Structure formats: structure tokens, C-alpha cells
Amino acid sequence: MSEARIDLKSIPRHIAIIMDGNGRWAERRGLSRIEGHRAGLESVRAVVRGARELGVRWLTLYAFSLENWNRPKSEVDELMRLLERYIELEIDEVLRNGIQVRTIGRSDRLPASVVAKIGGAVARTRENRDMTLAFALSYGGRAEIVDAVRAIARSVEAGVLEPEAIDEKCIQANLYCKDMHDPDLLIRTGGEHRISNFLLWQLAYTEFFSSDALWPDFTKSRLVEALCAYQQRERRFGRTTAQTRETGS
Ligand code: FPP
Q1: What is the DSSP string of 81-110?
Q2: pTM (predicted TM-score)
Q3: Is the CB of 61 under 6 A from ligand 1?
Q4: What CA–CA distance (Å, rounded) separates 189 from 216?
Q5: CA 53, CA 74: separation in Å to the nearest integer?
Q6: Helices 73-96 & 33-54, crossing angle to 10 degrees?
Q7: Among residues 151, 148, 122, which one has the least CA distance to residue 134?
Q8: Per-residue pLDDT tens for 169-187?
Q9: Quick check: is 20 catalytic?
Q10: Which atom of ligand 1 is nearest to the CA of 27?
Q11: Residue from 188, 192, 215 to probe ligand 1 pocket by mutation (most atoms less than 8 Å from CB)
Q12: Which residue owns the Cα nearest ligand 1 atom 24?
């Protein structure tokens, strides 16, 4: 897939990715699931680099869901190790490339070493402005909405917010990243067509692209393929085609 086909002036501002298929990739090769996750780490490195080169402003990766805590302990432990490994391997390049690291999710369940390593990366990259790389970690879309509702309820209880003042903006302001622009494009690898409790609030008008590639086979050229498909879409946000063409958006 050639990059020449991409219109660099309409790169999606925010891409969110459900990285699926590590286990199947490994099973097809007679390897353990853990080997699949290790191979998946290389795709994370390639896609972060590729997204930055293409001028994507925000990339959110579904690294570990709340439901993933139910996987065998050995697999969970390896996924945690890989997250630490990613930071160790990439932090210098991430810093150099102007990338800001963030996390979303219920971090209270994460091992202290992961919290420390990711927290260090978040602190070191805080001033970077060229791209934001958000890891959804111990993340669930419904849990995020529950956490926002609890925060809003506390404000009402404290008398600083009127129930009538609760609107979409107020809910947005209480999500994990209040300044996160809704994703323009959601990519799911592994050929599945599910949202799997990812960014439920934010995906309301996001374009969805399902890639047949298993995550360890998802390279920059696969990312380019997804972007080309995105650029063929007409985003109407509830309006008619004629209205959309009139305003050019
Ligand atoms: C889903 O594939 C993938 C995950 C649960 C974890 C994603 C983790 C990585 C890509 C490893 C490194 C991550 C970072 C952020 C450094 P699956 O195991 O459900 O695959 P399957 O559907 O084929 O079983």
C-alpha cells in the first residue's frame, strides 16, 4: 500500500486502535500466546512511529481492558512486563519525537512497577505537543462513564453543580481525559467487528475500520490502508450529503 495515495491534509486527528489477534497469531505458529503478545509489542512500536510520521495528533491504544484481568495470571503478568518494556525501549525516541504519553483507566489495580514506569513516562513527556499517545490500561468504557457519573454526583452533593447544568459537555469534562478529541477513526485488527467496551462515550460518530490483519502483522502499510479507507468516507454527523458538501465538512 503506497503512502502516495494518502491525502496528508486530511489525516484523522485522533486514531483509536483495538489491537486484537496476538493469541491467534501465536497459535497459528505453534507458539504460546505470550509469544504473540511479544510480537504485538513490535507492532505497537511500528504503529506509534508510523502515526507520528503521518501527522496523527492523538493515538489511543487499547492495551489492557478491565475484562483482561480475568485472563490467566501468567498472561496478565507478561502483558504488564511488556508495557514496562515498551517504555524502557521507546521513551527516548518518544521524547525526541514530541510525543506526550498518557493513560486512561482504573490504574489502582495495576502493579506498582507499571504505575511507576508509566508515571515516569507521563511526567517526562508532559511538555510534548506533537502527538499524544494514550494507553487504555485497566480500562472499560462503562467504568469510565460510571466514574464520571460518580464525580458529577459528588459535585451535586457538595452543592457546586445544579442537576439541570449536567449536559454532554459536563460529562465530557469528567471523563478520564477531558481534553481528548473524539476519535475520528477506530481500527480493530483481527477481523472482528466489536467495540468491546472501548471508549463508549467518545466513539459516537467515529468511523470504524476492521482489518483482517492480526495485530502482530499490522504494520505501517496496514495503517496507511486504514487511512486511505477513512479518506473515502463521507462523515455526515446526522446531516444530508448535500448539507455536508455545502459546508465542506
Ligand atoms: C488482544 O489480543 C490483545 C491484548 C489483550 C493485549 C494487547 C497487547 C499488546 C499489543 C502487547 C504490548 C502492548 C503494549 C501497549 C506495549 P488477543 O490476545 O485477545 O488475541 P486473540 O483474539 O487472537 O486471542
Answers
A1: HHHHHHHHHHHHHHHHTTEEEEEES-GGGS
A2: 0.95
A3: yes
A4: 9
A5: 35
A6: 20
A7: 122
A8: 999 999 999 999 999 999 9
A9: yes
A10: 23
A11: 215
A12: 23
